[in-house]
Each structure stands twice: as structure tokens, then as C-alpha cells.
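Technical note accompanying the year-one report. For the benefit of new consortium partners, we illustrate the data format agreed upon in the data management plan: each record pairs a sequence with a C-alpha cell string. No post-processing was applied to the example shown here.
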Amino acid sequence: MTCIDLNSDLGESFGPWPMGDDVSMLPIVTSANIACGFHAGDPAGILAVLHEAARLGVSVGAHVGYRDLVGFGRRNMDPSSQELIGDTIYQIGALQGLARAAGTTVRYVKPHGALYNAIAQDAHQADDVIAAIKAVDPALALMALSGAPIVQQARSAGLTVVCPAFADRAYNADGSLVSRRLPGSVIHDPEQVASRMLRLVKEGRFTAIDGTEIELEAQSICVHGDTPTGVSIARSVRDALVQEGVELKSFTHG
């Protein structure tokens, strides 16, 4: 690959409780997955992040999740279709309004946490999220787990699908993410993360947690901003790619 997108989950602070360093992360990434208030984020904080993203020319996406502030959207849930479609439309619509006020536009949707993992395999919940996106704007792209059934399911429904590689997360041999409940699920060493992402971009593969070599479709690299080393990791990944002549560009820019 000669170019790739670099994204991060931002806008997740809530009132006086900070989450991540959005100000430092925004100049590094090319796309920002902005919380929509259900798993994290408050309107004033989200609006501030959107203003800065607009100023820097960073592409914006709706980071929709389950209605789960206490669990940070990482607890499994089983909402009805009516609930999930309504909640997803609500979150996208809220971010669209805030984005318009900030002078930018929502261009894609990236489900968060437990919802992201659920729709990767659960065709019913995937259908609900796809239906919600299409009801709001069929031109919105969907970020979905590489190699999972959701990718073809969404493409068959007419959506553009972008597959991210998670820079700081360990993968199982089947291409799924290692559960955060297990040791080694999150990688904190910036140099290690940068090395594996550079290899992914150059070779299309990297090493799973059990030592297996896996191939992964990826048009974007995601760095989590809610970890203490998030900014350092993002900067290391960006520097490593740029030094190798890889152009960093949002997938929404064509």
C-alpha cells in the first residue's frame, strides 16, 4: 500500500472526567471516530473536538455504541431491532448536527466496543446497524472488522466498507480481536506497534498472539486514544509509515 488512513476514537471525555488526549491526537490522525454520547462523550466536549477536527482537516466519523455509559459501551447487549436502529440513527443524527455547527461533515460510521464486535458475527444486529445507516445517508461508509461476515453483508447492502487494523490490539489466529479480559490484549510498546503496522502496510500481514502469521485487509489503522500510551503509539506509527514513504490520507478523500 502506498497510502493508508490513520484513525482514533476521540471525544470520549465526560464532563470533568477526561478520557485520552484529543488535542495531541488530532494533529497525528487523518480520521477521527467521535463519540456520540451513548458510550461516552458530552455535547460540549464533542463539539470542541469537532471544531478542532474541522480546523485541522481531519475527517469525522460517528462512533456509535450501545446505550452504556457505565460500561463504556464494552458490555454485551441484546437490544431489539427497533431499539438498535433507533439508537444508531439518533447517535448519527446528533453528531451530524454538532458537526454542521462546527463546520464539518460526518462521513462514516464506526461502531464502538461491544457493538463493533457483535455486528462482526451477529447478522441480525448487523442488519439493524446497516438499516440505520442507510436510513440516514447511504453514502456514509461503515468501518467493520476485517474478514468478518459483516464486511460482505454491508457491501451486499450497498454500503462502502472500510476495514481497520487495530494497531495496539492483539489478534487471534482467526483474525478476531483478543478479549480485553485476557493478558496481552492491548499492546503498549510504541516501537512494537509501529513495527507490526509497518509490516502490515508493506506485506499485508502480521503475527497473531499465538505466533500464527495472519493476513488482514486494511484500509485504515486504528490507535486507541483512551490508553496512557495512545498518543505516543499514534506518533510512532505515523513516523514509521512516513519514513517508509507511505502517504497518510483519510479514506474519505478518495
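Partners are asked to follow this layout when depositing records. Residues 3-253 form a domain with the TIM Barrel fold (CATH 3.20.20.370).
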